[in-house]
Specification:
The chain folds into 2 domains: 55 residues, no CATH class; 246 residues, Alpha-Beta Barrel (TIM Barrel), CATH 3.20.20. The radius of gyration is 20 Å and the shape is globular. The protein has 377 residues and is an alpha/beta fold. It contains 9 helices and 20 strands. Strands 8-9-11-12-13-14-15-16 form an 8-stranded mixed beta sheet. The termini are close together. Strand 5 and strand 6 form a beta hairpin.
C-alpha cells in the first residue's frame, strides 16, 4: 500500500479550478462528488485519490488501472448505438465502499490491501489511438468511480471527440452541480447505478441518496442520454415498497428512461444474501411497469427472463431489438430510430444503420505496446 500510494502521489495534476475552492487554515473543499469533502493540508478526501498538497487539490493523472473492450450492452446501454464496441478504461478509487463491488480491485485499492491492480502508463492520445485501432465507437470511463477522476476523463474525452468518437460514464451518480457542468460539454452517455431508494441503505454504502437523486435529475435535464441500473439484492433493496418508490421516481422524471434491474450474485464482502432469480427480476420489472416505465430490462440472466431482454415498441408491441445477454440477434429500427410498424419514435441515441457487432463478449485490447506497466509492488 505505501508503494502504491507513493506512485499515485507522483501521477497527479492540479484539479480544475471549478472543482475546488480554498478554505481557511490551508484547507480546501472538493466538488467532484457529493461528499464535498473539506480536506486539510496533507490529507485526502473520502475517495482517497484527491488530496491537498500545499493548499492545492491534486488529482489522478497519466495512468489507467484497467482497460477492456466491451459490447456497449455490457455497460449497460441498450438505447445507445446497439452493437457498438465500447473501449472501457478506469483508474483507482471510489467515494463509496459497497460490500458487493464487482470492481473492488480498482475501486477499493487504497482501502483494501488485497485489492491490487497493475497500473499502466497512459496518455489521452494513446488511449484514443488504441480505441480506434480496436474498432471502438465509444470511450467509457468506468471500473472506478469516474466522477473522482473527472479531469482525466475530460482530457481523454476531448481527444475522443476530436477523433469523432462518443463518450460515456458508468457511475454511481454521486455528483455535484459543479462536476456535472464540467463534464457536460464532453459527455454523451451516462449510466447511473441507483443502488437503493432508502437513505439508510446508502449510509451503509458510504453515501447519501440526496446527491444521487439530484444528479439523476440534472443529467436528464442536461440532455445527456441516461440509463439507470439497480442491482437487485434480496433482503437489501428488493421490497415492493422500495422498488415502487424507486421506479415512480424514474417515471416522474421520464417514463422513457431505460431501467435495468439486474441479478445479484455474492461478491467481495457480501456473500450472505442468496443470488437473485429470474422470478425476482420479473417481479421487479412488473412493479416498474405499474409505475409507468416503458423500457425495463432484467439483466445478468440471459435466456432466463423470456422476451424481457428485448426492446419492444410501447405503442404496437413489435419487437425492435432482440437480445441474448449482450448479443444483438435482431435489429429492426428504422434509420431515424422509429418503429417500422407504427412509426413511433423510440427514445435513444441510434445509429443510422446497424452494422453488426465486433463482439458480444468482453476482450482485452490486442497489441498495445504503448501502454507500459508501472510497478506498484
Amino acid at each position: 500500500m505505501p508503494k502504491l500510494r507513493s506512485i499515485l502521489d507522483e501521477r497527479v495534476r492540479e484539479a480544475d479550478p471549478s472543482l475546488y475552492e480554498k478554505l481557511d487554515k490551508n484547507r480546501i473543499r472538493c466538488y467532484s462528488c457529493g461528499h464535498c469533502c473539506p480536506i486539510p493540508e496533507g490529507q485526502a478526501g473520502v475517495c482517497k485519490v484527491r488530496f491537498n498538497r500545499g493548499g492545492k487539490l491534486l488529482v489522478p493523472w497519466g495512468y489507467v488501472a484497467g482497460i477492456q473492450c466491451d459490447p456497449i450492452e455490457k455497460k449497460p446501454f441498450f438505447h445507445a448505438h446497439p452493437g457498438a464496441l465500447a473501449y472501457s478504461f478506469g483508474m483507482l478509487g471510489c467515494d463509496l465502499h459497497c460490500a458487493y463491488c464487482q470492481n473492488w480491485v480498482t475501486s477499493q485499492a487504497l482501502r483494501d490491501p488485497n485489492a491490487i491492480s497493475p497500473l499502466l502508463k497512459a496518455s489521452p492520445e494513446s488511449l484514443v489511438r488504441d480505441a480506434i485501432n480496436q474498432g471502438a465507437k465509444v470511450l467509457v470511463s468506468t471500473y472506478n468511480e469516474p466522477l473522482i477522476t473527472s479531469e482525466w476523463a475530460v482530457a481523454v474525452f476531448k481527444e475522443a471527440k476530436a477523433a469523432g468518437l462518443l463518450t460515456a460514464f458508468v457511475s454511481n451518480g454521486n455528483g455535484t452541480p459543479r462536476v456535472l457542468e464540467f463534464l457536460r460539454p464532453w459527455l454523451d452517455l451516462y449510466k447511473v447505478d441507483l443502488k437503493s431508494f432508502d437513505d439508510r441503505h446508502y449510509h451503509e454504502l458510504g453515501g447519501r441518496i440526496g446527491p444521487i437523486l439530484d444528479s439523476i435529475r440534472r443529467i436528464h435535464a442536461m440532455g445527456l442520454w441516461l440509463e439507470i441500473v439497480t442491482l437487485l439484492i434480496p433482503d437489501f433493496n428488493d421490497s415492493e415498497d422500495e422498488l415502487r418508490r424507486l421506479t415512480e421516481f424514474i417515471a416522474r422524471l421520464s417514463p422513457d428512461i431505460p431501467w435495468h434491474v439486474t441479478a445479484f450474485h455474492g461478491d467481495y464482502k457480501m456473500t450472505g444474501p442468496r443470488n437473485s432469480t429470474a422470478d425476482d427480476l420479473l417481479r421487479a420489472a412488473e412493479i416498474g411497469r405499474q409505475s409507468g416505465l416503458r423500457y425495463i430490462y432484467p439483466g445478468n440472466l440471459p435466456g432466463r427472463v423470456g422476451d424481457a431482454e428485448n426492446t419492444t415498441c410501447p405503442q404496437c408491441h413489435e419487437t425492435l431489438i432482440r437480445r441474448y445477454g449482450y448479443l444483438v440477434t435482431e435489429y429492426n429500427l428504422t434509420r431515424e430510430g422509429r418503429c417500422p410498424g407504427c412509426a413511433a419514435e423510440i427514445p435513444g441515441r441510434w445509429s443510422s444503420r446497424f452494422d453488426g457487432q465486433i463482439t458480444s463478449t468482453p476482450f482485452l485490447p490486442h497489441n498495445r505496446p504503448h501502454l507500459v506497466t508501472i510497478s506498484n509492488r
